[in-house]
Input
Amino acid sequence: MANNDRIYAAYKGEMGETFQKQTQQRIDWILSQLNGREKVLDVGCSQGIVSILCAQQGAQVTGVEIQPENVEFAQQLLETEYPQCKEKVRFVNADFLQYQEDQVYDGILVTEVLEHLPDAERFLQHAASFLKPDGVVVITVPFGFCNHPDHTQTFYLSNAVSLVEKAFCVQQIHYGGNWLGLVAKAAGNQSIQLNEAEYQKEEEAFFQIHKTLSLRGEELYQNLMNANRKYKESQEAYQKMKQWHE
Output
């Protein structure tokens, strides 16, 4: 089944200013977590923009993507819009669970991927085999319910951390509005503790989401009321015009 991901369109603002801001903030956060890592594996790289921007920061990047049309788009984007990064980015069309190579990486990206997978645990364990002992993995997933037909699960704090800890040790948790970010290291490191402070952060993140939704609901309601008022006024004006011409 073809992937309808349009992350590059969102990044460039072709899907609206709000979506562009959200997408750029998420990508900026992802890139900031790599901290100058030299070799990066971008798993499920989609249309390739994160891989390319990572290469712009100086990393040597391998992007693995299962959808051939996404790889074709990413390669064309690299060659036409970012030719200065051509020597630093390699895109591979492959099912990551079947992907094998002899290299290991000091940075791995798994961003907006896990929510699509029927066996995310196995996927992460395979990713762990490519991580250097001192490497870092950056993961993002949608935060809370997302009505998308291709999503197999919904992520909140505890189940996201529990899943990632099947393969890594979580070091940091970040709330980005409608997405959740986790930074992790190889198994054997000290993992973060889900204490009261962490759950308070989750509650604050939920509050911000609910506040945004509430304000948006009020805005839509006012728009509907205004539309109804204008419709009523136009109907009244129409009836008057009919009377004048009778």
Observations:
- The two ends are 61 Å apart (CA to CA).
- The chain has a mean pLDDT of 91.
- Residues 40 and 107 are 5 Å apart (CA to CA).
- Helices lie at 7-11, 17-32, 49-56, 68-81, 120-128, 157-164, 196-244.
